[in-house]
Amino acid sequence: MSSPEHSQYQLVRSLGLLDVIMMGIAGMIGGAVFFLVGPATELAGSAVIIAFIVNGIITLFTAMAYAELGSAMPEAGGGYLWVREGLPRPNAFISGWMAWFAHIVAGSLYAVGFGAFVYGLFRIIIGEQGFATIPVDKLIAVASIAALTYINYKGTSETGKTGTLATIIQLGTIGVLIGAGFWIISTHPNWTANFADFAPMGIGGILAAMGLTFIAFEGYEIIVQTGEEVKNPRRNIPRAIFISLAVVVTLYCLIALVSIGSIFPEGKAAWQFIGENGELGIMKAAEQIFPYGAFVVLAGGIISTLAALNATTFSSSRVAFAMSRHYNLPHLLSSIHPQNRTPYIATIVSGVIMAIMAYTLPLEQIAIAAGLIFLLLFAQVNVAVMNIRRMYGDKLTYGFKTPLFPFISIIGVFLNIGLAIYLLVTQPLSWGITVLWVIIGFALYRLYTFKKEIEHYAPMITAAGDIPRKNYRVLVPFTPENPDRLIRYAIRIAKDMDGEVNVLRTIMVPNQTPLSAGTAFAESAKKSFIPLEKMLDKESVLNHFLARISHDTTEAILATIEEQNINLLITDYETFRSNKKLQTLVTCDVLAIKTAGIEIYPEREAIEEEEKKNAVVLYDGGVHSDLVLKTMTWFEHSGRYNVSVLALTGEESPDSEKKIFTTIQQKEFLEQITFNLTEIKLSERTRNSSERMSHLLLSNINTYEPELVIAGENVGKFSFFTNSHLILLLNQLNCPTIIAKHFTIPGIYLAKSWLSRIINR
User: Fold this and answer.
1) What is the pLDDT of residues 188-198, one digit of tens each?
2) What domains lie within the chain, and their CATH numbers?
3) In sequence order, which residues have a C-beta less than 8 Å from that of residue 9 and are 6 or more positions away?
């Protein structure tokens, strides 16, 4: 895991389980429990209760990912932090940038709601009194932000106590409404008649109500922001997430139940009465349930928005704090107050931006994007939890682990993406605002943030080589024990692609030592490049040599790939196989090479046919297959190999070999390439057994007595990097082996395959 340099002062673990539960409840309820149930009832009728229950079940899929990662990696930053650990650049910055914006917008909206409720109460009590020309509600909103920003500045304990008190009062007002409603129900035996027409709008109405209210159940993003300030986070964060979610879903259902079941309007159904009054539906129902019911709902709305504002003020500052600690925002925002032990600059900056938004912007239009942003963040977190499990395995200590893994996380991804697409149809403006904010963030990332991040984590201390650049760029990590071993492969590819070779040497510095200590090795690093430079110049290949200092070799490689726009990484197979972080976060194609102690020569020669060596290529038509075929062309062009392609297929049709040959021949880069094609039919039993698969492949490969084997990362569902039988297969080959890994955005290849099948039907 990345380990940013922390301030000399640390955050203090002063929040208990109750504090964190109340913070989550406050964030999930907000004022929505009083003012969102009405519009949802208009869409679904009495079946709004089903909409709340199903939403609770759906959100549980993502809540489990948050509970798992919140217990294993309890740090400020929440979703941003996990995306940083589990997804390639620039996902982390974009997710943090979006999350910070969404938390601030949500806080601004709560503040405006609080101002509107208080101003409404003033008008009821004292009338207009000359306030018509003064934006009193906006001024109250700004004052509430200032007050809660100060409380958050003073200390986490004060924040927790304020939030707990406000949430208890909030739950009290909700309890009064529910209690009164059940009293009415108990005195009216025919109350069930109000639910006779249970789902008047059908499934479509239920789905519409779900889309409207889903985001109300996502308060666990606020809970996990307490990771560095809650006591015993491995136990308390998962508990807080599940308890607060259960409480909130129950409260929403009970509010809907008693509001519909305890009123008996004349001439219309109870759900119609509530739905027609929209945001005021619950308030109007409360007027009929008990005296001063509207006043109780109004008071509950005031307290609810205040509690939610306190929670989002806390969470927005922690996102900014975490981003600045990783140099994704100005590092000054990571400063911790020496007495209060709070990220006071991040708190003040977030509060100021929140106040400006609350006073000047049309939040009703911007707020619709906040829900979409959270959905996209949740989808990223569900992908990240799968990658983090794969990278770290048992190295992390979990307080909770998602059951039925990874199926729960996969379902979570699809549910969040599905709801995001639903918003594209119903609220296209939300996508417009989100895309605009992402574009602004990406520009900031490329122009400022990325440079600052690289300067901190993997600064370059020397560079040498040719000044001109080529479009196709190959990167080779420097290996002192045998520096030219991989360069020969890079030369062959660079010549064929009219590209350049970049050589990276990383000078490792222990974590407890400042990176500046590595600058002493700059001159020796530069000298180590001289033999390689002569070798590359002799082959007339454009070359560049880079030396970085870092606490983490992987960070240096990833930074170089992005900074230098690298197309292909050539690395040692064993090094790459053991580096799951690099496997997961690399953003270019990779050739992992197992040399078996045999050299390969880059020169192109016209040699006699009988002197050519055999090269075997495994082709299965999967995501890495195009890169496998390109690699085949690079070495076939050397004139040294007779290439045989072993096509793996499970099809039993007699013309499958012809189909495969046609598919391969359609690749433009394979024009003028000579190769032999042999089909290997795999039975279902073989496809499901890596042991049988490896034996079959080894016997077929050995018949050619090859001097080079090229394969993709996966053969069917088995990986050459993780499957023990396929790893053993490589160890039994007495020739260089190239394992190709093609970089693709998760899900894109699958979508392309489905689209291709539909078109070709």
Assistant:
1) 888 888 888 88
2) 17-450 (1.20.1740.10), 458-576 (3.40.50.620), 609-759 (3.40.50.620)
3) 336, 337, 338, 341
